[in-house]
Amino acid sequence: MVLKLYGSSIATCTRRVALILHEKKVPFELHEIDVRGGAHKKTDYLEKQPFGQIPYIDHDGFILYESRAICYYIASIYSSQGTKDLLPSDPKANARLQQALSVEVANFNAFAEKAVVEKYLRPMYSRDYKPDEKICSEAISTLDAKLDAYEKILSKQKYLAGDELTLADLYHLVYGSLLPNAGYTGLESESRPNVARWFKELSSRPAWQAVKENGFKSVAAY
Ligand SMILES: N[C@@H](CCC(=O)N[C@@H](CS)C(=O)NCC(=O)O)C(=O)O
User: Which parts of the sequence belong to the GST N-terminal domain (predicted)?
Assistant: First the structure.
């Protein structure tokens, strides 16, 4: 049975999963959840995702939520197709991947998401919302300092976990691509040439082109 992705084509975490499905060339059905209408807070939805959030997947009856866990599962069971080595099995390479995955969550996403949500997503969904500039500028300045460490890492290796592309690199696209909407262009800055080189290459990947911006659709076959 084709993998079912329950979420929203314009939501960040759903896009993260769709990105990896495209990288791995996995056909999927997108089931749009009416978030504005509160469908993700209804009893039947909570049976599948107890926190009332999107996305989750149904893969032949196997239900899984948390976008990064879903991506890990997809990369693991479809290891031999699409983009290879997103999930290295060698213990040391996998440990480096775990390190990079933690870096993305703790040192990048925590601040990028905060700034993007405050300055861009909340005002977009609620026209009366006035962003808290302090929250945003604190998140951006912390992120900016963290990117100096990224520059050091990426001056010695091509990607965050080594010289091969992994899930950890790809996860940065979701909020990284929205940072200019929060007024921050530090991922493109010439002052950090290796970060700029890395993010430009990620941004040009066909899988990202398929899911970025204004929504994406089910993919019936590859
Ligand atoms: N850690 C979760 C976060 C999921 C999440 O925050 N989803 C948002 C959309 S991107 C959502 O469902 N928001 C509506 C709500 O929380 O009520 C994941 O990665 O799947």
Answer: 1-82
Residues 111 and 158 in one domain: yes
Domain that holds residue 70: 3-84
Q: Which among 3, 1, 5, 2 is positioned nearest to 211, based on CA atoms?
A: 5
pLDDT in tens, 11-46: 999 999 999 999 999 999 999 999 999 999 999 999
Question: In the structure encoding, which two tokens stand for residue 113, read together?
Answer: 């998401």
Per-residue pLDDT of 185-218, as tens digits, reads 999 999 999 999 999 999 999 999 999 977 899 9
Spacing, Cα 91 to ligand 1 middle (Å):
31
Residues 95 and 201 occupy one common structural domain: yes
Q: How many CA atoms lie within 13 A of 118 on its CB side?
A: 18
Check if 103 has its Cβ closer than 6 Å to any atom of ligand 1: no
Atom of ligand 1 nearest to the CA of 65: 20
Greater model confidence, 220 or 164: 164
Å from CA of 67 to ligand 1 middle: 9
Domain tally for the chain? 2
Q: Where residue 85 falls among pLDDT bands split at 50, 70, 90? A: confident
143 secondary structure, DSSP code: H
Summarize the confidence of residues 60-87 as an average pLDDT: 97
Interatomic CA distance for residues 147 and 150, integer angstroms: 5
Residue with CA nearest ligand 1 atom 17: 53
